[in-house]
Design goal:
Radius of gyration: 19 Å
Order of helices and strands: EEEEHHH
Low-confidence stretches: 1-11
Mean pLDDT: 79
Distance between the termini: 45 Å
Strand order of the largest sheet: 1-4
Structural class: alpha+beta
Number of helices: 3
Length: 104
């Protein structure tokens, strides 16, 4: 197992590929991960903190989206198969700007 840092930092740049660097408040925490996961992380990136921060942000977005989708269905009824098909096409990038699915 590997333990990663503890403390507080006022602001630090956060750079996400294909996006601008942002100055964000950060807090240093301790995270314990299995050694094999840390070894794989280090093969993928020199910025383990940035990688983990992006993974956490992605998971938070996923959870918040789930809450929003459940709320929408409670208010408007369940999604139809057509709506689900269109959403899947949009997520996979197969939808044109006008919303119609493109032939791939």
């Amino acid at each position: 197992m590997v333990i990663i840092g503890f403390g507080t930092i006022e602001a630090a740049p956060m750079c996400i590929p294909q996006h601008a660097c942002l100055m964000v408040d950060t807090t240093r925490i301790t995270v314990t991960l299995p050694s094999d996961q840390v070894a794989e992380l280090r093969k993928l990136t020199d910025n383990v903190s940035g990688y983990v921060a992006e993974a956490v942000a992605r998971q938070l977005r996923h959870q918040l989206l789930g809450v929003d989708l459940r709320r929408h269905q409670e208010e408007h009824g369940e999604f139809t198969e057509e709506e689900l098909t269109q959403a899947r096409a949009m997520i996979s990038g197969a939808a044109d700007l006008d919303g119609s699915a493109s032939a791939t």
